[in-house]
Amino acid sequence: MPAEHIPAIDVPAPFHNGRRGRWNAWFFATFDRYINVILRRHKSRAFAGIAPGDVLELGPGVGANFAFIPSGSRVLAVEPNRAMHPRLIARAEDHGLDLELLEVGAEVLPLPDNSVGEVICSLVLCTVEQPERVLAEIRRVLRPGGRFRFVEHVAAAPVSPRRWLQEALTRPWAWVFEGCRLCRDTGRVIQDAGFARVEITRRRPAWSVFVPVNSMIYGVATT
Ligand SMILES: C[S@@+](CC[C@H](N)C(=O)[O-])C[C@H]1O[C@@H](n2cnc3c(N)ncnc32)[C@H](O)[C@@H]1O
How far is CA 124 from CA 72, 148, 178, in A? Predict the structure, then answer.
């Protein structure tokens, strides 16, 4: 969708959902190794060959993707959720990354046009308020030839048991996981965002206990 047709929204402010936020930070810190194992194929393909230098990560949480970013890089981390920050900062140090924390939502990025070569995210476009606006921002800040690399869970095929499960769990899931939408067609949003080239693979993790989020896509979009 052209950026001028996307309705304007308020800049998402930093937030902290109290106990629920702390629980989410604990959850992702505890399960990120497991999640990285079940998504090994997805992440190793989407994040292979990230160019060293500045990397913009949207919604890094507690730093699950830091293992895929070349050591010594500067990571511009767009993470509005303050409950994630203490672990995120510690993980960046563990991985030898120079962290610049941007406490804003990805809908309005505080970065100049054409300023970064790599943008990455995982399990984030399900949660942002307005994915079309986030995609427009990614395109704005990427340099020509820059890459947006993503791993996301998406809506299952319509009229399938997995989709019924997603629909039944939509509200409680969004409450527990701070706004995560199970039935979002994120692949379509990325395809329609106006990148010069989009490679998307739809592939279920080989085995995972997190059944509602087992419909996954990964890929790279190039400006
Ligand atoms: C499901 S977690 C995924 C965390 C991490 N990327 C991972 O794969 O483990 C979603 C993350 O998106 C962040 N988030 C929520 N709203 C956001 C927004 N508007 N812009 C950027 N990040 C956001 C959350 O705070 C959280 O860290």
Answer: 24, 13, 11
Please tell me the residue having the least CA distance from ligand 1 atom 10. Answer: 124
CB 139, CB 194: distance < 8 Å: yes
Low-confidence ranges of the chain (pLDDT < 70): 1-11
Sheet holding 54-58, edge to edge: 98-102, 74-78, 54-58, 116-122, 142-153, 216-222, 197-202
Which tokens in the block code for residue 114? 């054409």
Query: What CATH number has the domain spanning 13-222?
Result: 3.40.50.150
Residue 77 Cβ inside 6 Å of ligand 1? The answer reads: no
For residue 121, give the ligand 1 atom closest to its CA: 6
The pLDDT tens digits for 24-80 are 999 999 999 999 999 999 999 999 999 988 999 999 999 999 999 999 999 999 999
Mutate to test the pocket of ligand 1, among 55, 127, 210 (most ligand atoms within 8 A of CB): 127
Question: Would you kindly state where each structural domain of the chain is located, as residue ranges?
Answer: 13-222
pTM above 0.90?
A: yes
Query: CA separation (Å) from 36 to 30, 45, 155, 211?
Result: 11, 12, 21, 16
Judge if the beta carbon of residue 105 lies within 6 A of ligand 1: yes
